[in-house]
Each structure stands twice: as structure tokens, then as C-alpha cells.
Design a protein that fits this description.
The protein has 2 domains: 270 residues, Periplasmic binding protein-like II (D-Maltodextrin-Binding Protein, domain 2, 3-Layer(aba) Sandwich), CATH 3.40.190.10; 143 residues, 3-Layer(aba) Sandwich (D-Maltodextrin-Binding Protein, domain 2). The protein contains 18 helices and 15 strands. It has a 5-stranded mixed beta sheet, with helices on both faces. A 5-stranded mixed beta sheet has the order 9-8-10-7-11, with helices on both faces. α2 crosses α12.
């Protein structure tokens, strides 16, 4: 497994790129194992179409295809790049996609009627952590004027959003609005950005209910939606002064465009936070249980491979850098994928810091679709008004259990264990877990058994 590194408060400034050149990846087309397809009694014979957005956390899906894990199960899989998260949901619901890379809050929103209604389930969690919050150079300078520590090399993490309260107020006095972009109202980037801002005492705005897609009531910083690959160009054009997104887009801004910088990685906001999931329609999993199990088996193997040894991460970076997938500079992708992030450039060289917990795919039971992930997301929906009224504790747990299908994961895992491909302790005994105060930037512990008591602790939030 990948070794955990300890980050010191003062970090060395290093060369622009962290590693030796990574060879280009040649796309593979493994032939599906027909005997396995017959033995597994797969219900779906045609090629399965799986969606992805151009973010590095799609890698378990790509690796399962490129390494032949889908083919080993008798599956013929095609991966189709999607333009934005709305298209992902629309194409899954219409049947254009059989499964897809998705934001962890996305199927929960669909379950409660926020952003459309559909029965979408999560049989596999793609990753934990993996998001970054970046700001423009102008905003960073303004933040550093409020908090001089930010002007010094090697400033410590976590960086608080508190200076943005004064920055937003000053910009308003100049006739400007501080705007930050996220990728989808029910998504992980929106929730993470809101959590960070609120932990610093900055109001990100409230939603007025299920039909409000903007959520800007009382906002000190206005949040708007934008697709991940367009974040950097949006900032360069002056359309936003910050954003929350996955990789490689924070590194593209910091290392390539040099017009902004990574302010904080999501593991410093909530270490262990859910990020992306693999989703299917409930009617598909109900009608095709053997095919579903085969898909999840392949994804578990891919996630395990990703966290097995560091060398695999370099190979993974080459895979998703290919033009058929993300089509970005492999060095940008390799930063987070190999356990480092560059927070800024100092005189042309990189303030590169070890961040081994940024992209976690299998360690820490990262691929398990925890019910507690669903409960936590729903508490944040309620906190910001997406859920318009108070709900009993049982409601949170019931919705989470319907969406996050631990039974589907466990069935696939148990069959892999019988084949000697995984170990018992790689799957948790429980379906939910608590998180200590130390996991959060605001030091508020989370117990999924008591969502209302958890919500009551936030100074900023709907009451």
C-alpha cells in the first residue's frame, strides 16, 4: 500500500515537475472472456457504455478497462466522455449510459427530487478526497493582506476561508462580486466549497428548496455552476475568482496557466470526504444482477491495483492522460495521482507538498459505498436549504441506504475473496462509520446515527 507521509509546516520549493518522464499509454482493447461471460450468466451481451467526466478520479473505470479487468469478467465496455454533470444524469436516465462516473451527491439529489428525480444507486465508491479549491492571484494577494501568514513561503495547511469575508466586502465596495464556481448543485464540489467557506465564517448562500438551482440567498460569496474542464478558462476570462474542482484542473491553473493557485485540498477540509461514485439505475441492477456483480468485481480490482504500489499511479496517470479520456498533460495529472500537489510557484519553481491522502481509491475502505457518506451529504443538503424542512434522523438513514448499495458491493467483494483476489480486512464490517473532529477543518465530529444533533452544531446553516 502507499506509504503515508507527514507534511511539515514549511515545505521545500522544488523543480517544476516532480518525476521522471512518464511513457505515453497505448490504448488497449482486451477481448472479453467468453467462457467467463457464460459461466457468470451475464444478462447483457451487448457492449456496456460507461460515462466519465474529464477528471482524474474516473481512473478506476479506465483502469478496469485498460488492464482487462472488465474483459476478465466477460464484459465488453466502452467509455464515453461526457460534457458536464447534467448530461451524465440525463444520459444515464435515458439509457444512453449503463453506468457512470458521478458526483456522490448526484444520486442523492435525484432520490429526493433535487435536480431531477430518478432511482440511481451506488454499488461502488470511486474515491475519497480528491478535490481542490483554487483562487485567482488577485484574490490570494487580498487574502494575504488580511492574513500575512499567507504571504510567507511554506504557509501551513489548512488555509482558512476567513480572509474572504473582508475580501468579498472590499470587492463589493469596488462594485464587484466575489464569484466562485463549482460543478453541480448536488455535487461534491459545491458541498466542499460551501463547507470551507462556512468554516471560515463566510456565507456561501442558501437554497430555497428543491426547485432552486442557484442557492444564492444571503450569499457573501456567490457560487455558480461550470463544467470541470472549463474552470481555468473561466477564471482567466474573469468570470470567477475561485473554484472547487477535481484534478487536473487545479494543477493546470497553478502550474501551467499561472493565473491562480491551489488554496486548499479537500482532505484538509474533510479528510475522508466522499467525492465520486460509480452509478447505475436501480432498474438495471435489479434486472441484471450478474452483470452488476461482474462490473463491481472489475472496479474493486482496479481500485485495489491503484493503491497497491506507487508505480501503478504513474501508469494510471498515463492512461487517463490519453486523448480518448482526459487528454491533458500527463505531468499535471501525475501530480495528485502520485501523491503530491503544487500550491503555488515561487520565482518559477514549485511549492510542491506531499499529499498522499489526496487521491485514495482503495485504502481506508475508500471503494466501499458507505451509508454514512449518504447521510453526511444529506445533512449538508439540509444545512444549505436544498432539503427545505427538518427531517427525522431515520429519513437520512433510509435515503442513504436506498442509494448507497453496500449489499451489491459486498456480493462482489465476497466472490473476489472466494477467488483469493482480495483479503477479508479490505471490506468493513459495518455499513456506516463516524468521523472524529480532527477529520474536519471546523473540528465538528460527525456521527451518522445522529444527523440532526450534528446539524445543530453549525453556526451557519438553515435552522
Amino acid at each position: 500500500m502507499i506509504r503515508t507521509l507527514v507534511l511539515s509546516a514549511v515545505c521545500a520549493v522544488t523543480t517544476l515537475w516532480a518525476a521522471d518522464p512518464i511513457p505515453a499509454w497505448e490504448i488497449k482493447s482486451p477481448t472479453p472472456n467468453l467462457k467467463k461471460a457464460i459461466a457468470n450468466k451475464l444478462e447483457v451481451k451487448r457492449p456496456l457504455k460507461f460515462g466519465m467526466i474529464k477528471l482524474t478520479d474516473c481512473i478506476p473505470i479506465v483502469a478496469a478497462k485498460e488492464l482487462g479487468y472488465f474483459a476478465d469478467e466477460g464484459l465488453n465496455v466502452q467509455i464515453v466522455v461526457q460534457p458536464n454533470w447534467k448530461a451524465v444524469q440525463d444520459n444515464l436516465v435515458s439509457g444512453e449510459l449503463d453506468g457512470t462516473h458521478m458526483l456522490y451527491g448526484h444520486p442523492l439529489g435525484a432520490a429526493i427530487g433535487f435536480g431531477g428525480t430518478a432511482e440511481i444507486v451506488v454499488p461502488y465508491n470511486l474515491c475519497i478526497n480528491g478535490m481542490g479549491i483554487s483562487v485567482s492571484e488577485d484574490v490570494w494577494k487580498r487574502m494575504a493582506a488580511v492574513d500575512p501568514v499567507l504571504a510567507k513561503p511554506g504557509y501551513p495547511q489548512p488555509v482558512s476561508a476567513a480572509p474572504l469575508k473582508q475580501v468579498a466586502s472590499a470587492m463589493k465596495g469596488e462594485g464587484k462580486q466575489l464569484t466562485m464556481f463549482q460543478t453541480y448543485p448536488a455535487g461534491s464540489h459545491n458541498i466542499t466549497l460551501r463547507y470551507w467557506l462556512a468554516a471560515g465564517g463566510v456565507c456561501p448562500g442558501f437554497y430555497s428548496g428543491l426547485d432552486d438551482a442557484k442557492g444564492v440567498t444571503d450569499a457573501e460569496v456567490v457560487l455558480q455552476v461550470n463544467p470541470p474542464p472549463q474552470m481555468v478558462s473561466a477564471m482567466n476570462q474573469g468570470n470567477c475568482q475561485g473554484f472547487c474542482v477535481g484534478e487536473p484542473w487545479n494543477m493546470k491553473l497553478t502550474l501551467q496557466e499561472k493565473t491562480g493557485r491551489l488554496a486548499i485540498a479537500s482532505n484538509h477540509v474533510f479528510d475522508g470526504s466522499p467525492d465520486k461514485v460509480f452509478c447505475m439505475l436501480k432498474k438495471f441492477t435489479d434486472s441484471n444482477p450478474n452483470t452488476t456483480k461482474a462490473v463491481v468485481r472489475a472496479l474493486i480490482r482496479a481500485g485495489r491495483w491503484l493503491d497497491e504500489k506507487p508505480e501503478n499511479r504513474r501508469t494510471a496517470a498515463a492512461m487517463v492522460a490519453h486523448k480518448d479520456y482526459i487528454g491533458a498533460d500527463v505531468n499535471l495529472i501525475a501530480e495528485s495521482m502520485t501523491g503530491t500537489l503544487v500550491y503555488n510557484l515561487v520565482d518559477g519553481v514549485a511549492d510542491r507538498r506531499p499529499e498522499p491522502e489526496f487521491n485514495v481509491f482503495y485504502r481506508r475502505h475508500a471503494s466501499f459505498p458507505w451509508h454514512s457518506h449518504g447521510v453526511w451529504a444529506l445533512t449538508q443538503f439540509r444545512r444549505w436549504g436544498m432539503v427545505p424542512e427538518n427531517k427525522p434522523d431515520g429519513w437520512y438513514q433510509e435515503v442513504a441506504a436506498k442509494v448507497f448499495r453496500t449489499d451489491l458491493y459486498r456480493a462482489a467483494f465476497d466472490s473476489l475473496k472466494a477467488d483469493g483476489l482480495v483479503k477479508s480486512d479490505e471490506c468493513p464490517a459495518e455499513d456506516s462509520r463516524s468521523y472524529p473532529a480532527e477529520a474536519f477543518i471546523d473540528r465538528i465530529a460527525f456521527d451518522p446515527a445522529k444527523p440532526n444533533a450534528y446539524l445543530a452544531q453549525f453556526a451557519l446553516g438553515r435552522k
